[in-house]
Write a structure and sequence with these properties.
- The chain is of the alpha/beta class and about 200 residues long.
- It is built from nine helices and five strands; from the N terminus they run ααβαβαβαβααβαα.
- It has a five-stranded parallel sheet with strand order 2-3-4-1-5, with helices on both faces.
- α5 links the parallel β3 and β4.
- α1 packs antiparallel against α3 and α4 packs parallel to α5.
- The longest helix has 24 residues.
- The model has no long low-confidence stretch (mean pLDDT about 95).
Length: about 200
Amino acid sequence: ESSYDKLQSLVGLDLVKKQIDGILAVDKIEKERKRYLGKNYQTNTMHMVFAGNPGTAKTTVAKLFGEIAKEKEILKSGALVERGGMDLVCVDKVRDAFKAAQGGVLFIDEAYSIFSGTVITALIQEMENHRDDVIVILAGYGDRMKHFISRNEGLKSRIPYWVDFPDYNADELTEIFKLMLKERGLYADESAISEAH
């Protein structure tokens, strides 16, 4: 099963799946443009924001996206390197994170926890320096991410994609509950499932 198929088989997330399809389609077009226009044509970056509440599968989708990017030869390794905004306290930590994520995805959770203007500037610089070999995904609550991105024009211009992760509804959560039971080799009768719903 491909990572793309795994993404499609996740419960719910219809909006997220459509947005990821759109991002992959744009990449395909950009590659065609580069093929026709030559080496001097600079393709768009694939950096993005994953906005949503905790428990909405942002990390799961980021990991799958890295694997999809490897399968589609967008990235070399497709590995996911996770950092919290609170981890990136200085320029060296930012550079180390990009070094670790070489050829893959750098997932920065609660990116709005980066308070230093110097660190944000370093993040923007590294995003540009590694535009072809690292995809940065900044994640967190939607309203706080909007405020964070608005703090610096450089961030706005280097992050072309915003992916919204809506909360799961009760039916979707019940489906996830059933899958979790199955994965653990457990059984619940209909009354228990109804109660969980």
